[in-house]
Design brief:
Oligomer: single chain
Structural class: mainly alpha
Distance between the termini: 169 Å
Number of helices: 3
């Protein structure tokens, strides 16, 4: 039995040795094939990457053209939005300019109207003063004419003989004699004439159509 077992062990060893030899060779071949395949895959991968790199450089690669198309579309939309915004801004500036221009014109017209009214009022006041001065001169002239007429009448009365003089009517009393100065009489006469001149235009307006 022991001898059989020893023979069996030797046979197994031989079988194992016979099996290990092709196994090692197969393993080496597999390693060689794997390395070849690995190198081939690497070379293929490198070739593909180089082709894609060339396509990217020539702007033909999908990885480049698709994002580029999206960017160009976004740029187009941004340009459109910017153009619309520019139009709105120009409209706002134009409206603001027109409003400021209209306001400046209205302010100028208002100032012109106020200046016209002020100048017209000042001229009317000067005309009224000149008219009052003219009336005062007319009144003074009339007063002096009347006074000279009275004096000439007195001289004529004095030159008449006593038989031809008319007797002054007698006034029965009681009565008050006012001794006024000539300047007081002139002022009263001027006031009366001014009052008459101011009432006459108003009366003409009231009587008018």
């Amino acid at each position: 039995m022991k001898k059989y077992m020893e023979m069996d062990e030797n046979d197994n060893t031989m079988v194992q040795n016979l099996w290990d030899t092709p196994k090692v060779a197969l393993r080496e071949k597999m390693i060689t094939v794997k390395a070849y395949l690995k190198n081939g895959v690497f070379r293929e991968r490198m070739s593909q990457l180089r082709v894609r790199l060339e396509e990217v450089g020539a702007e033909r690669a999908p990885e480049y053209t698709e994002p580029l198309g999206e960017l160009q579309q976004s740029l187009k939309i941004c340009i459109q939005v910017t153009g619309i915004y520019k139009g709105f801004c120009l409209d706002v500036i134009r409206n603001k300019y027109e409003c400021e221009l209209q306001g400046a014109k209205q302010h100028l017209e208002s100032k012109k109207l106020l200046f016209h009214h002020a100048l017209q009022g000042e001229l009317q006041e000067q005309i009224q003063r000149l008219e009052e001065d003219r009336q005062s001169l007319d009144i003074s002239s009339e007063w002096w004419d009347d006074k000279l007429h009275v004096r000439s009448s007195a001289k004529t009365w004095d030159s008449l003989p006593p038989s031809k003089r008319k007797k002054a009517p007698l006034i029965s009393g009681p009565y008050i004699v006012y001794m006024l100065q000539e300047i007081d009489i002139l002022e009263d006469w001027t006031a009366i004439k001014k009052a008459t001149a101011s009432v006459s235009p108003q009366k003409r307006k009231a009587d008018g159509p």
